[in-house]
Write a structure and sequence with these properties.
By secondary structure, the protein is an alpha+beta fold. The chain is 50% helix and 11% strand.
Length: 441
């Protein structure tokens, strides 16, 4: 199992700098201006401009400024940071495209038609956001206990009103006292139904804006950790300790959330003591395997997983589950957002590791609906025996999620999804229920 990271953008055969020459050439042609005229106006030779336009020479800052003025271009169009964001967006769009886009011509497309390229990247980003929103809302509508309880209360009120109204309608000999009692019951149940309907409408109306908001104690804790950048610096050796986090925990919305946050802080404090940041970061930089790190420094593998995923700026996601397969912790990454309420994809190696404790598992996976976007999934499971041989066995597994290289020749690719309801893969042997997305793969 390897925890080495590879930048998914590497190996694409493109450099941001080469967009400058193509952009200048296309603009000059659009203005129907000759190369020599533009070169003279910019104070350079025609041969130098020719080299720049064909990406054989890089334009210096002053030269680029003069060329931009002559051609009426905004210098911000040549900003490398902006260009890098655009190219990253186009790479993501190309990865999802079926049939495959001409990736080798992506840079030329961005340079020739920067507006259309930005539009394509933005539309893909928006489509991805909407896909995730559909997944979140489906997850909520299918499994949210709060929504289920609200609907149940409304149906109970409707049934009560209907039964009482039926008695009043069918029995003309009801005494005045009983009729008044039934009327009061209908009034009370109607008020309860109206309040329940208003609350449900408000809840659903707020679904879009609160799609990423905390709904359960576990989500409250995860939102709090996300706000901390997932790293609790106070717990590191030499830090202020758990007491420094007490105020942040105290403002969580429920007692259950505060208790869960306290449990995580205690676990994270033990992890930081067992595997200090000053030890772990050099090991990760050297490309050490999580098992080797655990063996070399006395920590367990799950400790290495937790510490790796929660160090500042680390790109790894993390999912932890208990012996029932219930997800107890989620650190999502853009390419991998675990479901909140529904059961997860049974093909995740997380669940294989749960059934095979102490056996390391590593696979390259391809997410449903993400084209050729691939992830490295590393999973490990452990057992604890509480009360000795006659006690109970507790199991726990964790899965580290890392963006994988674009290509690994010969590697077996495991097709996975988030949950069956929003996975469109056809003929999946692990499918539990039909997908609402419509099969396409």
């Amino acid at each position: 199992m390897s925890s080495r990271l590879v930048n998914p953008g590497q190996g694409a055969g493109m450099t941001i700098a080469t967009m400058t020459g193509t952009r200048l050439r296309e603009r000059r042609k659009a203005l129907a201006r000759r190369q020599g005229d533009v070169a003279r106006a910019a104070g350079i030779s025609a041969s130098y401009l020719n080299l720049i336009e064909h990406d054989r020479r890089r334009a210096t800052g002053p030269v680029l400024v003069r060329l931009a003025e002559v051609l009426g271009l905004d210098l911000s169009e040549f900003d490398e940071g902006r260009a890098a964001v655009l190219m990253a967006g186009l790479r993501a769009a190309a990865a999802d495209a079926l049939p495959r886009s001409e990736v080798d011509r992506m840079e030329d497309f961005a340079a020739r038609f920067p507006g259309w390229a930005a539009l394509a990247a933005n539309l893909h980003g928006r489509a991805t956001e909407l896909e995730r929103l559909v997944e979140t809302l489906n997850d909520r509508l299918s499994h949210d206990p709060h929504l289920s309880a609200a609907v149940h209360d409304m149906l109970s009120s409707v049934s009560a009103v209907r039964a009482t109204a039926a008695i009043l309608a069918e029995d003309a000999d009801i005494g005045a006292e009983w009729r008044d009692r039934f009327h009061r019951n209908i009034h009370q149940d109607s008020e309860k139904l109206a309040l329940g309907a208003e609350a449900l409408v408000a809840y659903l109306d707020g679904s879009t804006s609160r799609a990423e908001g905390p709904l359960t104690p576990q989500e409250e804790v995860e939102a709090w950790l996300s706000g901390q950048g997932w790293h609790l610096a106070a717990l590191e050796p030499g830090g202020d300790g758990p007491a420094a986090l007490a105020e942040g925990i105290s403002v969580l919305g429920s007692n259950a959330a505060r208790q869960l946050a306290g449990d995580w802080v205690r676990l994270a404090a033990r992890d930081a003591t067992q595997l200090p940041r000053t030890v772990l970061e050099p090991a990760l930089a050297a490309g050490m395997d999580p098992l080797d790190i655990a063996a070399a420094h006395g920590g367990d593998v799950l400790c290495v997983f937790r510490r790796t995923a929660t160090l500042p700026g680390r790109p790894e996601g993390l999912v932890i589950c208990d012996g029932s397969g219930t997800i107890t912790f989620r650190k999502p990454i853009p390419a991998f957002v675990p479901p909140r309420f529904g059961a997860a994809c049974p093909l995740w190696p997380l669940f294989t590791a749960l059934a095979r404790p102490l056996m390391p598992i590593e696979v390259i996976a391809e997410m449903d609906g993400r084209g050729s976007l691939r992830l490295r999934l590393e999973a490990f499971g452990v057992t604890r025996h509480v009360g000795g041989a006659q006690g109970v066995e507790l199991r726990e597994a964790a899965m580290l999620v890392t963006p994988a290289p674009d290509g690994q020749p010969g590697a077996r690719i495991l097709p996975i999804g988030t949950t069956c309801r929003v996975c469109a893969r056809k003929d999946c042997p692990a499918r539990r229920e039909p997908s609402i997305m419509g099969g396409s793969l």
